[in-house]
Amino acid sequence: MHFKSNVAIFVDGSNLYHSLRKVLGTQPRLLDFDYRAFTDACVPRDYSIISRSYYIGVVRRPSNQITQSVSHAQSILFNWLRSSGQRFILREGDLRYRNGVFREKGVDVLLAIDLVIGALRDEFDSAVLISSDSDLIPAVEFVRSLGKQVFYVAFDGRRTIGLSKKASKTIIWTKASLIPFL
Fold first, then answer.
1. Terminal CA-CA length for the chain
2. CATH number for the domain including 117?
């Protein structure tokens, strides 16, 4: 009898966006990217995906033209991610705009908490982490200490060595390997 491993996928949305932008050398059209097919390709074939969570900072109170524009674009993206073709669970932190700069608040903490709690509750056997945020290293270490696998998904030129060392396996995507998902 073959045991089929249950996998939970954790996507740091902002980190994914900036990684795609760097690897592709252009501004990615987020609604053209097939998130579901991409996350499927990050998981070994004999594993079963039980959840896909997308973590993102959200503009809560659009107060000027810039924040209103971002809020509108987010609404369209979120509807796409929740659609039957993509089927992501959205996990929202805050996106604040101050002095001409956007900053996310609470997103990496929320992802780390979900990763740890999911492992403690035995909700998955393996996790796929699509983020190069080194703040997640302690969560990855803890999840691994519970006997879980963590597959770290990185992008050419944006790999975090610390995450690679702590993860069970590192999967690196290049520009050429990303083309089928655009």
1. 38
2. 3.40.50.1010
- Domain containing 112: what range? 6-181
Number of domains in the chain: 1
Return the residue matching tokens 């590192």. Answer: 170
pLDDT by residue (tens digit) across 98-128?
A: 999 999 999 999 999 999 999 999 999 999 9
Q: Hey, what's the torsion of the CAs at 181, 51, 144, 133, to 10 degrees?
A: 50
CA of 145: how far to CAs of 47, 124, 137, in Å?
A: 21, 14, 12
> Is-contact 72 58, C-beta < 8 A?
no
Model confidence, pTM = 0.95
- Pairing mode, if any, of strands 126-130 and 89-98? unpaired
Q: In whole angstroms, give the CA distance from residue 10 to residue 100.
A: 29
**C-alpha R_g of the chain:** 16
Within a domain: 1? no
> Rounded distance, CA 135 to CA 168, Å?
17
Cβ atoms of 108 and 18 within 8 Å: the answer is no
